[in-house]
Amino acid sequence: MVIIARTVKGKGASVVENQSGWHGKNLDEEKAKAAIEELGGQRNIQISVQKPEDAGEPATIGETQPLELPSYDEGEKVATRTAYGKALAAIGASRSDVVALDGEVSNSTRAKFFAKTHSDRFFEMFIAEQQMVGAAMGLQARHYKPFVSSFGAFLSRAYDFVRMAAISRANIKLSGSHAGISIGQDGPSQMALEDLASMRAVWSSTVLYPCDGNQTAQLVSQMVDRDGIVYLRTTRMKTPVIYEKEEEFPIGGSKVIRSSDRDQVTVIGAGVTLHEALKAYDRLKQEGVFIYDQVSKQATEINFTKLYACLNRNQRAKVVNFYRPLKGKIALHCPR
């Protein structure tokens, strides 16, 4: 059944009924009195409705088992989108309150791993990113832990819903894949370049950009119970694992990857660009270069202690990443 409703603005008050130009404006005192009389006069009507029963905890779907996150050997090449999908499936096996939604690209975002093992908690939302985020808001209101997956570029279609989710103090987890120009074969329409800036601007947001499979798995695990809007940026390109599986990655932390007593420049990277920075290091190490892995992109989450130490010693910094030029970006990374 489809219900089509035609809205008539100001219905019942002839001075404004179906008239344009009155949005956000007040009536003067005389017109307000006349409109009130037309609408039945000054009344004090109270309507009591039956309140819904407290839903309590979300329904338990399936049996759970201890969490066993996937891990990868150093040097193994793994795309962070694959590490995300496998970590999400593992978390789903250990938490019955975790659900996943995808915008008909689960084969690319790798949410397919969750869909295959937990089909009763996977929601195919098709090409309707706004509806997908809206559904996630409803699921979290019922105490579920929703993970929303799509291309990072496509999530821009739902930005208004993400913004409203933050205003509503909703707790949702977003995964944007195919970020940066490393997906050259997919073309520029698929490349998420603005997502770091746009998601970082959302109130209550945490923005994560892992560089390898082990880091991704650890961060996905931490996303589950983190409040607010949590955005994980993943890539299609396979990158070598540089961290041991036992390594810990507290949100807001960072890692010093390469350093020496001869360093003159600090290079700050994250995600796939960290690997490009490491390639540059191998070529420039005789000239003194310091490599810094910035795990978290949200300025309020960054632990600047290590970064200050680098800058105090080297005086010069280079931020390496794939995004459009943004005035003041360096100021966010390196406040004075």
From TrEMBL:
Record-level Gene Ontology MF annotations: thiamine pyrophosphate binding; transketolase activity
Question: Which keywords accompany this UniProt record?
Answer: Calcium, Thiamine pyrophosphate, Transferase
Signal peptide residue numbers: none
Q: Which InterPro entries match?
A: THDP-binding (IPR029061), Transketo_C/PFOR_II (IPR009014), Transketolase-like (IPR051424), Transketolase-like_Pyr-bd (IPR005475), Transketolase_BS (IPR020826)
> Which cofactors are required for activity?
thiamine diphosphate; Ca(2+)
Keyword Calcium attributed = yes
Indicate the segments forming the Transketolase-like pyrimidine-binding domain, all copies.
78-241
User: Pfam families this protein is in?
Assistant: Transket_pyr
Member of which family? Belongs to the transketolase family.
Task: Give the multimer and partner information.
Answer: Homodimer.
List the protein's name. Transketolase, pyridine binding domain protein
